[in-house]
Protein 1
Amino acid sequence: MLDQAILNQLKTVYAELESEMDLRIYSSDHAKQDELVEMLNSLATTSEKLKVTQLDTESDAPSFEIYKNGEATGISFLGIPGGHEFTSLVLAVLNADGKGKLPDQGILNRMKSLKGPIQLKTYISLSCENCPDVVQALNIMSAQNENFRHQMVDGEFRQDEIEALKIQGVPSVVDEKNNEVLSVGKTTMAELLEKLEAHFGAEENEGSKDLGDYEVIVVGGGPAGASAAIYSARKGLKTGLISENIGGQVKDTKGIENLISVSYTEGPQLAAQLAKHMADYPIEIFEHRRVESIVKDDLKTLVLNSGEVIRTKSLIITTGAKWRELNIPGEKDYMGRGVGFCPHCDGPFFKGRDVAVIGGGNSGVEAAIDLSGIVKSVTLFEFMPELKADKVLVDKMLSLPNVKVVKNARTAEVLGNGDKVTGLRYEDRASGEMIDHEIAGIFIQIGFMPNSAFVKDDVNTNKFGEIEIDDKCRTNVKGIYAAGDVTTVPFKQIVISMGEGAKAALTAFEEQKLHG
C-alpha cells in the first residue's frame, strides 16, 4: 500500500487526467505478483480516470501495460516500479494522456517522425539514479509515436536475458527485434533521440526549423546557464536558453552543503529549483538540443543537432564539463561491459566480485567507500605518489577491510575476454614494471573535462580545452562570452558558476545596450 501522503499528492497530480487510463496486469504465480497488484490498486484510488484490469494472459514475472481509452499506449513495465522508478510509473500515466512536463513541439515532432516499428526494452536497477531519465524519455516517445513500444525491465526478473546480452551497466536500452544494445549508461533525451533517428530513420517533419532572433542566447542549463539567463531576462533582454537537460552535471551530485545560505540540498532538487526560477521570467527554453556549429557575424547563427537554427546578438556559453575518460586501449571496447562511471548505478552488478576504482580524489575515494559495501573487494589506483582526497575521506576508506590502495600507478590497458572486463594492466611508475590486476569491473573517477568541443574552432581554449575568458567573462570573439566549469575560471564550484553566469550576462548587457 502506498503511503497516504503520497496518495494525497497523486490525487492533485492526476486531477488533470482526461482520458480513461487502464493499468492492465498480466496474471502471474510469481512471489511478488501480489506486491505489484497492491501497488497499482492503491495508485488507482487517486483518480476516477484510473483503473486496474486483471488479464488472463500469463507471465512468469509481475508485469503490466498502460492503456488509454481502450487503446495500447505502447508503455509497459516488467517488474515492480518502486524506488527511483515509481516516478517513471506516475509520469507514464500522465504522459500517455498528453499531460505533465513534455518537450516542446519541435522535439515532439521529431519523436513522431521516427520510423517504426520500434520495440525497445530498457534494463534497469531500482538503485540506479540515472535509469528513470532514460525510461521516462522513451515512455514519452512511445506515447507520441503509435509505432513505438517501450518496456522497462527490472533486471532482477530477467537475469538470463542480462547474461545473454552481456549487460554489465544500466540503464541498457535494447532493440528487441535484433537483441542489439543501443545505449548503455547515463544519457540524455537528446542523445537517445539522435541514436534512434540514426538507427531506425525518421520521416521529414513539417515543423519550422527557424527558432527566431534573440538578444541573448545561453548555451547550457546548469547553475551558470540558469544564472546567465535570469540576469539577462531581468535586464529586459530577449533571452533564450539551449540545453540538453536543465541542471547539467549538478543532477549527478548527491549532497550539496556548500551553497551559501542553503545548508543542504541535493542535485536533482537544485536542478528543479533552477528550472522553477527560470520559469518566473520570459526565458524561452529549448531543451533536449545541442549546438553543432556557430556562424560568427554581427548576429551569431547557431545550428542545432535538430537541424534548427537560431540567431542572437550575444552568445553566452555555459556548457560545463563531463566525466573524463582514461583514453587507454580497451576502455571504449568495454564501456558498459565492465567499464563505467557510476558506482551507485552499476555497483550491484558486481556484488561478490573484485573491482577497481581509478582516481584518488574525493570522487574516487567516495566511490571506493560506496562500493566496499556491495562488492568483494575494491582496489583504488592513483597516478600520483599520494592521494588527493580530503583526509577525512581517506581515513574512512583505509579503515575498510576490503579496500586496497595502489599509488604511483599509471593505468595502461583494460583487459577483457571479448565479452566483459577481466582485468586492468598498469605500470608501477617507480619500477617501470607492468602488472596485470584481475578484476571484474572498473569505475573511472578522474574528474571532468570541459564541454567545449563544439566551439573550439571559434574561440580560444587552453591545453585542457577550457574556454579562455577575461575578468568579465569575455572570450576573444566580440559578442561571445563564457562562464562556469567550461572556462578557465579557477575552482569549479556551484556558487562560483552562478556568480560567473551573472557576470557574463551583465557584461553582455553592458556591451550590447550601453556601448552599442
Protein 2
Amino acid sequence: MGSLAALPLVLGEAVEAAAQRRPGEVLAWSAGILGLGVFAALAGVMRHRRAVTNYLLSATRTQQLIIRCATRLGADLPRHVAAGEVASLSATDVDRIGRTFDVTGRFAGAIVTYLGVTAVLFAMAPAFGLVALIGGPLTLGSLMACLGPLGRRQRAQREAVSLASGQAVDVVAGLRVLRGLGGEAMFASRFAVAAARIRVAMNRTAQMAAVLSALEALVPGGFLVAVTWLGARMAEQGRAGPGELVTVYAFAAFLLVPLATFGEAAQSWSAGRVAARRVLTVLARQRELGAVQGLSESAQPSPSELAAGVLVDTQTGVRIEPGGLVAITSSDAEALTELAERLGRYADPSPEAQVTLGEHWLSALPLELVRETIMVVDRDATLLAGTVASNLDPVSSGSQPARPSVARAVRAAQAQEIISGLEGGLSHVLPERGRSLSGGQRQRLVLARALRAGAPILVLEEPTSAVDAYTESVVVEKLRELRVGRTTVVLTTSPLLMECADTVLVLDQRVVAAGTHHQLLDREPRYRTLLERELS
C-alpha cells in the first residue's frame, strides 16, 4: 500500500519535469515509477500470500477448536448441538471467521496510507487535506451506521440456515424410514417452509448489503468529485502547476482504494462477529457430568480391580454382581437407554441417587478410568469410514490385557461370513457409517468390535435386535464363552438372551423382579406379559 501511495508523488514530479522540458529528470522519474511498480507487484504477491495465510490459519484453528469441543462433549454433543448446526459451523461460520482475518492486513495498510496521503495533501494545500480528512471518517461513519442492522439480519439468516440444515440432516439419517411411512411429501412441505424463511432472511440481508455497497461507492465518489473540483479551481487561478494537479488527482484516485477497503472490512467484520458468536455459543458448552471428586492418582484402582466390585444403580435398584451375564428388560426402551448411560457414566443419576462400583462412586472416579473399565455399546453404535480392520481393532482399545483376538471376536459375533463376502476382507474400505452393509451386518460388526476391546464390564443395548433367531442363538452362546469371568450386562427384550443370562432383572421404573428366565416365567406375570408381547 505504501508503494502504491508513493506513485502519485513520483508521477507528479515526472509530469512537472516534462512540462519544463527537462528530459534527464523525466527519465530519472520514469525509472522511479518503474521501480515502484515492480516493487508494488512483488509486495502485492507477498500481501496476498500473507492474507491467505491469515485466512487458512484462523479458519483451521477455529475448526480445530470445534473438533476439540465435540471431543470434549462426547456423548453429550447431540444434547447440546444439533448435527445441522455443527455442519453449518464447519461449512459457513469457519469460512466467515477466516475472511475476517483475511482483510486485517489490507485494513491496516489502508489506515496507514490514508493517514500518510492526507498529511501530504495538507502540506500541498490545506483544502485538499481537509477534504481527505473528512472523507475517511464520513465513509467509516456511514458504514458503521449500517453494521447494526446488517448484523441483526445476518443473525436471522444464520438461524434460518441452521434450522434448515438440522431438518436436512434428520431426513438424511431417517430417509429409509421416511420413505417406508410415505412421509416424503410432509418433509418436502416442512423443508419448503424452512427454505422460504431462508429466502426472506437472505433478501433482507442482501438489501442492507446493497445499501452498504451503495455507500461504499457514493461517499468515496463524492470525495473524488470534491478533490477534482478543488484542483480545477486552483489550476484555473494559477495556484497549481500541471505536476501538482496530476499528483492531487492521482492521490484522490488512490484514496478510493483504502476507502473501499474500509467498506470491505466493515462487511467482513459484521459477518465474522455473527459467525464468532455462533462458534462461541458451542465452545461454551460443558459436559453435563459433575466434576470429579477426590481420589488421588496413587489411590486409583486398576480397571480389573475396579471391575471386581458390584455395580449398583440406586435410582432403579439395579445390582450387578461381577463375572456374570446379566440381562435387564423393561417395556420402556427409553428407561433402558437411560440406565445404560448411567452405568457407563455418560449421564449422572438424579441428585438423590448414585451409581457405585464396589466401594467407589462412579462420579468420584476419573472419566478415563471409568471408560477403561466400563464399555457401553448403545443401540445407535455405528461404524466409521475406513477399513473393516480399523473398525474392529481401534488403536485406543489396546490398553486392555488378555483381549480376545480379532478372529475370536468376529466368530463370537457371527460376522466371519460378512467379512469373507467383502472384497479384500478385513482390508475392505467401508463408507461413512458403514452404509454399504445391512442393519444386521453392521450390528454384528459393532458387536465384534466391542468384544475385541475386552472391557472388564461390557454393557450392550439390544445387541441382536437386527439379526435372525438362529444367528442370535449362536451369538448368545459364543458371547457367554468369550466373556466368561467378565461382567456382561445386556439391556434387551430378546427371550433368547434372557434365557441364557445368569440373572434377569425386570425394570418398571425400579427393579420389580429378579431371577433366572425360568424362575421369572413361573412367578412373575409382568415378565410373562413382556415376553408374550415380544414373541407376538
Protein 3
Amino acid sequence: MKIVISNIRSSIDTDLNELKHLAAKKLGIGTNSILNIKIVKESIDARRKPNIRLVHSVLVEVSSNLKLTLNGDIRILEEKESSPIIPGSMKMNGRPIIIGFGPAGMFAALLLAQNGYKPLIIERGESMEKRSNIVDSFWKSKILNTETNVQFGEGGAGTFSDGKLTTRINDTRCEKVLEEFHANGAGEEILYKNKPHIGSDVLKSVVVNIRKTIESLGGEIRFNSKMTSLNIKDNVINGITINQNTQIDSNVVVLAIGHSARDTFEVLLNQGILFTPKPFSIGVRIEHPQELINNSQYGNSTNHLKLGPADYQLFYKTANRTVYSFCMCPGGIVVASSSEPDTIVTNGMSEYKRDRENANSALVVSVDPHDFESTHPLAGMHFQRMWENLAYKAGGSNYTAPVQLLGDFLSNQASKKIGCVQPSYTGDIKPTDLNLCLPDFVTSPMRESIKYFDNKIKGFGMKDAVLTGVETRTSSPVRIERSDSLEAIGFNGLYPAGEGAGYAGGIVSAAVDGLRIAEEIIRKYTPIC
C-alpha cells in the first residue's frame, strides 16, 4: 500500500533516514514497517528565523494489512492508469510542422514523435552548439545576429535564463514536463524541489538531448529556417514558406514562435490572423550582493549546504499598478538579450550552481493596452520596441546598457559612477538616468515600492544596488485568439501555442501548452506510417 504523507517539518540537517523515522511517527507505526520512502516535495520555511525548517511530502510503501488513520496530511495514493490518447482517423497532408523550438514547440514535437507523427520542426535560429558561440560573440563584440541570439535559436529564450521550472498552473501535464527534462539530463531534484531549476549551463545539453530523442523517433529539425508566410486556401492551412523561397506542404501547423518574434507577428497579422493586445510588465534588472539576500532570508543559517543561495519574490500594489520581482536569479548574471537592431533588452541568467557574486531579478511594473496609446493589434509590441530603443540611446547607441544606482534612482538624479555592487551585465554599461528610457507611470511606482520591499528583504533598498535597463520581455504583448479546438480562429489546421501566442508564462506552462496542442492533433489525425 502506498501512502502520501504531507507537511513533515524537520530541521535543515535532516537526512532520508531521519525523514523515514518522522514519517513512521506521523503514521503511528514502526520505522521497519516502511518498506520504501521517496521524497515527492521539498520546500524551505524561513519565516521564523533562526528556526529554519524543511517541509516535506513523502511517498511511502507499507504493508497492506496495516491499519492507518487517514487525515489531511495522510492519504492513500490511488494509482490511476493514464488513459492513452486515441489517434484520430483523418489523414495528414504531409508531416505536422512545428514552427519554433522553444518549450512549447519542443514538447509538442516530442509528444507527436512519441506517438508516431514524425514532426518537422522549423527553427529560425541556430543549433545549440552554434547558438552559444554566436551569443557569446554578441556579448563581446556587440555585433547582433537578428536570427540567432538570446531570444532565437534552439531551446528558445528560456535557455539563457535560469531554467526555472516553477509554475502557478495546476495541470497533471507538468509531471510529464519534469520527467522528460530529468530523463534527458536534468537532476533528479527537479522532480521534488518546490522551486526547481535546471540552470542555463545544464539546460543547454538537456535541450540537445530532447532534440536527439525527437530525431530518433522520426522527427526532423531544420535550423536557420524562418517561416516567412503561411500558405492558406479558403481559410485552411496548406503549408508554409520558409526563407522566402521554400514551400513545405502540410495541413497541420503549430505556431510556437515565442514572445519576441515580432517580424513573424507582422507577417501573421497581414495574413489575417486575429491578434489581441494583452497586458505585460516592464522595468529593469536589479542587482544586490547575493550574500545580502542570503543573510536577510536565512540569517545565521546562511551558506548551509541544504539551503543554497537564497531567492525572493516580492509584490507591491499601488492604486492601479502592481510592482513585483520576476525571474529572480540567485547567484546569476544580467544578460544582453536584444533581438532587434538598435535596442537594449535585459534578462537574468543563473547556472546550475548559482555561485556568482550577485543576485538579480527583474523589478517590473504592470502595463496594459490603455498605456499603449494605440488600438493597433500590435500596439504592445510597438510600445516595447520604443522603450528598448530609448534604452539603446541612453546607453550611447552602441549596445551599451544604461545603469543607475538605486540611491540615485530614488533621488531622481543621474548616476556618474558605480558603487560597491559591480554590475554583472554581459556587455558594457553606462551610468546614467533610467528616466530616459522608462515612462513615469513605471518609475514612480517602482520608487514607491522600494521602502516596502526593504522591509521585506533587509538591505533591498541599499543605495549601491544596480538597476540595468530595460526589462520588457516579461511575457507576450499579444494573444493569438484560438477556438475550443485550439486552432487559430478562422484558420483550420493552424495551432498557436505557448508564450508567444499569449497562452503561457514560463518554461513549464509553455511546455504544457505544447503538449495540449499535440494531444488535440493526435486525437484528430492518424499517425504517419
Protein 4
Amino acid sequence: MNQADLFVKALSGTVDLAFGVPGGAIEPLYDALHRAEQRGEMRLITTRHESAAVTMAEGAFRASGRLALCCATTGPGALNMVTALASALEECKPVLAVTAQTAQARFGRGALQDSSDVGIDTTAVLAKVCKYSTTVTHPAQLLPKLRQALAHAMSAPRGPVHLSVPADVFKAPIDEQLIAAQLAAISRVEDSVGAPLQLRPSQLAQLATHFERAQRPVLVLGEEATEEMPSILQFLARMNWPVVTTAAGHGAIDTDHPCYRGVVGFAGHSTAAATVAGADAVLVLGSHYRDLCVAATPALLDGRAMHIAPTSKSFAATVEGTLAIQACIASALAVVGAAAAPQAPLQRVDVRPVLGELPFPAPPAALNAVMNALALPLRGFFDAGNAWSWSLHYLPANEQLESIRAMGLGQMAWAIPAAIGAAVADHDTRSVCVTGDGSWLMCSHELSVAVQQRIPVVFVILNDCQLGMVKHGQAMGGAEPAGFHLPAVDFSQLARAQGAVAIRVSTRDDLSALSERLREAAGGPVVIELMVDPDFAPPMAERVRQLKEAQAS
C-alpha cells in the first residue's frame, strides 16, 4: 500500500463512486482506485471530459445523498473542472474533487503542466469555485486534509471541495503502525450541519406579528425548501394557504396539490403571479432570490414578504424591503401556524395550459407525450434553455416525476452528465435528461460513457436546429437575429454510431409507436430525438424584460 491506497481506503463507507479522466500525474490515484474496484469497494467510471466528471458526481449525490469523487490530472485537467464546480457551488451540492500535481521536486522547473503556486496555480483557481481548496504538501497532511474537506463539503451550505495532491505524495509509502489510528479518525464524516438554528425571541415576535392578521397569506417555496417538505405539507394541511414555487423550487410540491397555484418568476404561471400579487403577507421559504426565481415580483420584494432559510447563502440577493431570518424552516412554520388563522380549504387548480389544443410539432405537447410514454417513476434533469421553460410551464412534478434543474449558474449541457451520474447511483428510479440540440452538441460525447457502462438513462433532445432561447429572446427583445442558427443534424444516427438505441420522433405516428419501441430498448441508454417547431415561442417574456431593464440601467 501507498498513500493513494490509504486515501481510497479512508473513503470506504463514505464514497463508492469515482468519475474522472486519467493522466500521468494522477496515475497513482487511479492505480489505487482500480485496486479498490477489483475488491468491490469502488466503481470507477472514465468520463470524456473533466467537467462532466464533476457533474456526474453531483448527479450521483442528488440521486443517492452520498458523496462521490471526481478526479483530474494536473494543468488542463484540473482547469476543465472550473465551470462544473462553480455550478455545484451555486447549487449547494457537495462533490469531492481531487486533482494532481507534478512531483514537488519539479515545481518551478519547467515541468509539463506545472500547477503549483509558481506555475498555473490550480489550487488558487479552484478556490474561487469551491468551499475548500488546498494542496497536500506532505503525506502526513493527506488524511487530515481529507477529513477537513469532507466536513466542509457536508456542512451547511453544502458544496464542492478540492484537494490537489502531488504525485510523489500519493506514491509515498505508509507507516503500517499508524494506519489504524489514521483510518479511525476519518472512518466516516457525518453531515455536520448540526442542530438547526432556532428563532430568537425578537424573531418569534416579528413572525407572529407579521402573519397574525393576514387575510390573504401566500407560501412561496424555493430550492432549499425541498428538504423540509414533511413540515411544509403538515402546515398546508392545517392552514390551507395557497402555495407557489420559484422556478428553482419547482418540484418541491406535487403540482396536483389542492393548494398549488403554479410557478412564479421565469416561465411562470398567471395563476401564481395573481396569487402573489393579491397577497397581504408572504412567507418565502429557502429561496436564493435570484432574478430567475422572483422576476421582480412586487410582493416578494417589499414589506409583505418574510424570508426564512436555513443557510445565509439564501439571503445574498434578498432586497432591503424583505425581512430575512436564518432559521430552521420547521420552527418558523410552527410559529406562523400558531399565530395565523387557518384559511378555508382550497380546491385544486390546473395551472398548466391545455396541451391537447397544441399541434404536434409544438415542443410542450410533444415533450409531454414523450414523458408519458416513459415508464414511471422518473427523475427528470432539465437543461438550461427552452428545456427549462417548456418543463416549468407545461409539465407536472410529483412523486412519479421528480423535477431537477441547476438554475444557479445556468450551465448549458449540465443535465447530460448529471442524469448519467444519477443513473449510476440509483437504479430504482430511471433518469431522463431533457436537453436541446445546442447543449447536445456541447456534450454528446458523454453518451459513450453510458453506452460503455450500460447505464439505463434516457436522453430527450429537443431538436429545432437552433439555439431556441437565444432566437426567441432576440425576437422578443428587439435584438439583431444573430448567432442562433445551428446545422440540421440527425442526432439519432450519431447516437447509433456510438452504440446507443436511438429513436427519431418527427410525426404523430412516430409518437404513437414510441412506447413499444422503448420497451424493446430496455437495458441501456436510449436517445429520443424529438423534432419540434422552431417558431413556437417559449414563455420567457418576463426574462427578456429583465434583461432589457438591466442593460438600460
